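Anyone else keep sequences and structure tokens together like this?

Example one:
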Amino acid sequence: MGICHYWQNDPELFDAVAAAALLRIGEFSPQGLSITAWAFATVSRSDPKLFHVIAAASLTRVRAFSEQNIANMAWAYAKASRNDALLFDALAVGAVTKIDEFIPQGLSNMVWAYATVNRRESKLFDAVAAASLTYVGSFTTQNLANMAWAFAKIEIYDRILFDALAAEALPKFGDFNSLDFAYLMWAFAKVGRHDASLFQAAAATVLPRIDHCGTPELGMIAWAFDQADLPSTAKAEKLFAAIVKKALKANLIGLDSKCGPQRSDTIEAQCAELVLQWIPGAMRNRYHQMGRELDIVFQAADGSLVNIEIDEVYHRTPRQRSIDSRRDRLLRRLGVHVVRFDAFDEFGREREDLAEALHSSLRAEGILALFPV
């Protein structure tokens, strides 16, 4: 830890350490292996050769790893975006064997690491959930947020665990920093835990601190309240207005650099292919700066964004209609023109007149006026 703490990210020093470590990796103890990976990851240095040899050396000694060595190693590889399958498999087995020896920080770091690299190790998550029930009273706010986020991210909803996390987090809402709080509420919404008392308390907590929220926090909190699908309250409306005001003040009205996944075998893809032929410059699966994914989007002549959403059958359910309405309301307040197209007929089958119906819908909205086809 001394290297990381005293010299921070000194390129020459870390290059020298990496070169020396490559030559002498066989001499490293389990502690030395884990702490070297931890140090490099902490200063955001992902040396491919070094991480490769550390992983290889660790595989032969993982049984000798302490629970802290396991947690540090998993965290380091996730932080460095090094998804080494063999290493993560071995660390998961080692962690389950030693799960009773983990401290709260180690438990939350383990599931955070596996969720970050999208590894759904059910046995590991089950073991961590069970162990966490003993220690949840000792969790820091960051432990609570990371634990909830990891289980939600990997789509494992352990009701007993989330009951315990909610009970422990609620009295500490005021102690969370903005980012951890946003992750926590995102997680509760993601797993479908939409307790009115929880979200009312969340609204009361966020409102006075809205000016201290960054872009990720604003997006996650707004998304969480959309998904919660709770009856509108004065507090929730104040929070919505505050989020819009903050977003406009920060000029969060454009597209993010990120793109969402693009599949070619969906009705959305068929519609997108047509729209991209009709409208020059239209794009698929881009993210708005407030975190909302836009099925199809293009920039109008006045610089504003036009979002075309392709709705599948599930969008007809009352709950999803309500969620869509709140999502669209936020985007419209941020200057986005939102158009929804139902790509299915009255019987829930893909429309046979898809191209004609989509073209007619866009023409009726005035979208194709400048793009004659």
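And example two:
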Amino acid sequence: MPPYKETILVVEDEDIARKNLEYILKKEGYEVISVESGVKALELLESRTFDLVITDLKMEKVDGMGVLEKSKELQPFTEVIMITGYATVDSAVEAMKEGAYHYIAKPYKLDEVRRISREALIKRRLRLENLELRSFLKRFQQVPFIVGRSKEIKSIMKTIRQIAPSDTNVLILGESGTGKELVAKAIHNLSPRFEKKFIAFNCGSFTEELMANELFGHEKGAFTGATQVKPGLLEVAQGGTVFLDEIGDMPLAMQVKLLRVIQEKEFLRVGGVKPIPVDVRFIAATHRDLKDDVEKGLFRQDLYYRLNVITINLPPLASRTDDIPLLVHHFLSQKSQAMKKDIHEVEREAMDLLCQYSWPGNVRELE
């Protein structure tokens, strides 16, 4: 038995049979809730979770098949056992085809009830454990590998782990090539949104009109050549994370539109009149001094505060030279595999020169 009490819903319209089942299962250590009708069972399935449902097949208004169908719809990992008279065994077999775990024919033996209930709950536990393991492995495999053992990188990794589970906006600051997108991906992949899309968008690569079209999409006929509706990146990323790289280069007029999206959690397609709800987490990045830009009127103060809920400062590579040997070997291994070369070492003199270089292009230049 697991450390917590598993909960069983018993649905049986015969009073004596229902009380007997409840008594037997409680003695086995389960929490048992019993009802006398399928109608009440459906109400309970709507309001709470069960590990196992044991239901009579033949009942008025809502029968066992109705309970099975609703259970699989609302709680797909909850196992269902059918109780049936000999005359309805064929129907019980049909129920198993529809997803029931097993059936128990009346008159049933107590040991049979205990055994089948125990086996059904073991199956549920294993399914949930496998699901959790697959989810964990998927997340582990998707977390970007941030190389480094310097105190700066250790501190950044600690911050990533702390903020990833929340839904707050993040601003990543750092010179070009320091790994801002890698950090954004790590936050996304360690967050509850990891199964949804991570969309990266460079704000310095588009005019205001093209930027609006890319982020918000457009309606059919919005402009010449718009022959069909085009969803924007915000729609594509629904439920996921949008990474706005070089946010400091975003035009002021576009900053107003982005601010509205963050505040109202909705946007209009280009040429559209119907607001489209959006649920995404925003992570922004820039190499610019946004505080200075705000003072100079180049960046909106209200947008700055909306984005700058949590700040991560990425140090230049020259300030964490202890990480250079690790990064060199990491990239060397990657390139050797890609080019099918057997190169694993760097001469001492070469490594010394690499560590002494200033790396104006940071990690990207080293790679």
